[in-house]
Amino acid sequence: MSPKSAKRSSPPFDRTQGLRINYNLPEIENRLEKFIYDVENESRLVRAGLKEKAETVKIYQKYKDLFSREVLEVVKNQIDQTRGSSSLFGGSSDSRRNREVRLEILERIYFTLVSGIIGFKTANLDDAIKTYFSKAKVKIDSEELAYFQLSPKIAKEPIFIKREKYDDSAEKVIVKINPKQLAVLQEEIRILKSLGFSGYLNYYSQAKKVDYADFFQIVQKIKKETDNLWEKTMSKVSQEIFGKPFKNIRACHLLYLRSMSLYDNFYPKEKVVAVFLEFTKGLGLFDLLSTVNIDDKNRPSKNPRAWCSWPKPPEEVHLQIKPIGGEQDFEAMLHEGGHALHGAGIFKSLPFAFRNISRSNALTETYAFILEDLVFDPLWLSSFLNVSAYTAERIKKHAYFVNLMLLRRYLGKFSYEYEMFSKAELFKGPSLYAKNLQSTTGFVSQKTNWLWDMDSGFYSADYLRAWI
Questions:
Q1: C-alpha angle 228/232/233, rounded to 5°?
Q2: How far is 254 from 163, CA to CA, in rounded Å?
Q3: Nearest Cα to 245, choosing from 253, 235, 255, 254?
Q4: Measured at the alpha carbon of residue 304, what is the angle toward residues 303 and 308, in degrees to the nearest 5?
Q5: Pair (128, 239) in one structural domain
Q6: Distance (Å, whole) CA 192 – CA 200
Q7: What is the pLDDT of residues 152-166, one digit of tens each?
Q8: Residues 6+ apart with CB under 8 A from 85
Q9: Is the dihedral of CA 125, 127, 131, 133 positive or negative?
Q10: Which of 144, 216, 348, 384 has a Cα at 20 to 30 A from 89?
């Protein structure tokens, strides 16, 4: 269907809405912007522990007119027309630039619609998964805990064997939901193939403009160059912290190492938000925070993973954090603060596709990591937390280890994902996950976590690209 023929024909009748849908770009953008607002806020409420039951199905039903092959075809036709017609833009540099901008806008909308089609088909399963984790509880000895309390417990538990006890309980929760998580992934791949993509890797390579085969080679090179350094460093840390050789140690202990609990007293959790606000004033960016809602409340069912969402940038941005005490709180606050300032600093005058939609998260992760690393900087520690020069230098050295540990972990995560999707062998996922994570970190990762530990769309590569 060409844009002209679409214009001549009557728009289809949506019986659920009782109105006709206009398949033109402004209307598609308008509907898409409203959908993103609603679905982002629904996700935020569940993650924040403000809502127990996820109901994104209702939102997808409300906007189901968007997620059809007809709408996708309208945008695809405009992409093809823009690519193929130089007469629309002429030959000047300004005209070529206009053509490139229009193409970028159209492609961002196209890939967002594809993502929406997948979401529409998998919303029931996604809601069930989110609700399951939100409601999940475990009992350890006489202690009953919400599932989302386990990670903070592991991070701060000084007793080695007790950390593994918490991890055992987490694994029992995860194993029950794995079939649903696998079903979502399989349905995503099925839909992508039905839309003309050869598979998961092919789709995200186009959507994010990344050659993942080339990037995999870069990842392997970095891994090789840091192998000796990591082995030497981790062997020393294992003896000092765990009191044993670095062999057959479970990955749950990474959370404890990551938390830098030794320095908790220097990072009081009651100061997390106040210090961020003071720091932002010093940057001259405090005014941007007028549209940022910071939620630092501690709710049992609140996801401990700090998070920032942009339902309507720059007018409405949300930052969610669940302080547990220690350096990691400040690191998370500044990291998500980088995302929040990015979202709040976007020009309102930009087209919708440049305000609300990104190719990947690598750029915003770059802003986040720039701020995050300041919590290890001696001058920053002295200025905002009154830490002595001696202690600040010790923290800085420990931070080198933490950053190396995270780098190695994400090298392993991406390697696992790339190998699985490049070979289209989902059935090998659990073993590829365990193999790659152990190869890069040295820790033993449970096969059960192969889907739980994977963020969609090669987000692991977005992190690595931001670091690199």
A1: 115
A2: 10
A3: 235
A4: 75
A5: no
A6: 7
A7: 999 999 999 999 999
A8: none
A9: positive
A10: 348
